[in-house]
Amino acid sequence: GGKKAIQKLEQRVRELENELDGEQRRHADAQKNLRKSERRIKELSFQSEEDRKNHERMQDLVDKLQQKIKTYKRQIEEAEEIAALNLAKFRKAQQELEEAEERADLAEQAISKFRAKGRAGSVGRGASPAVSSLNPIILIH
């Protein structure tokens, strides 16, 4: 009976050794997976930090560009105001020019009439100067 008991115990030892080998392999695999996971966590943390920095840089850029846009809008508004003032000045000057040209035309017409009268009068009466009978008309603004 002792031999059989020893064989049974040896059989049990082999089973336990096989079980131990399997557990050691599973433990090694688990350790390997743990290291892989830790590496992946480090990579993701690094990537996350890089993304955060990029986001900050982009936000700074957006803020600067929005500030530039505000500045450009203000400059455009100022330029439009100046353009409107210049246009108003131009229209006023144009109107004054047209009025001055109209007065000059009227003055030239009046002078032509007086000269024509003067010539007609000098032919009939001899050498009387027609200019002395003119009343000067001041049409200049």
Task: Describe the structure in your own words.
This protein has 141 residues and is mainly α. Helices cover 88% and strands 0% of the residues. The protein contains 1 helix and no strands. 0% of the residues are buried.
Concise overview:
Paramyosin is a major structural component of many thick filaments isolated from invertebrate muscles. This protein has 141 residues and is mostly helical.
Using brief descriptors, characterize the structure shown.
141 residues; rod-shaped; thick filament; motor protein; cytoplasm
Question: How are the SSEs ordered, and which strands pair?
Answer:
Elements: H1 2-125
Number of strands: 0
Query: What is the helical fraction, as a range of percent?
Result: over 70%
The helix tally amounts to 1
Order of helices and strands: H
Distance from first to last alpha carbon: 147 Å
**Model regions low in confidence, pLDDT < 50 over at least 5 residues:** 127-135
Class based on secondary structure composition and strand pairing: mainly alpha
Radius of gyration: 55 Å
Please tell me the overall pLDDT.
Answer: 90
Apparent shape: rod-shaped
Q: What is the strand content?
A: under 5%
Describe the sheet with the most strands: none
